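Troubleshooting log. The previous structure file for this entry was overwritten by mistake, so regenerating from the original sequence record. Sequence copied from the archived sheet and checked twice against the printout by T.R.
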Amino acid sequence: MVFWSDRAYAVRHQKDDWSDYVPAAISLDEFIGAWLRGMHREGSLVGPNWDANLCGLEVEAIEVAKRLTEE
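Regenerated output below.
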């Protein structure tokens, strides 16, 4: 599942198969506590900030959560 850190990055993908989707903000607490936790349980990967060609890293959800909560 792909996520972007900025709405403008997400909006540029709102075309073709994703034309009916509307980007929405998620609080950091909800992203870590609900989204990443659920994705970790399901074994899903996170695609953070993919580029305009939908290319980018695929990272385990738990690794993203760890990086976001490091002090």
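The CA atoms of residues 38 and 44 lie 9 Å apart. Archived copy saved in two places this time.
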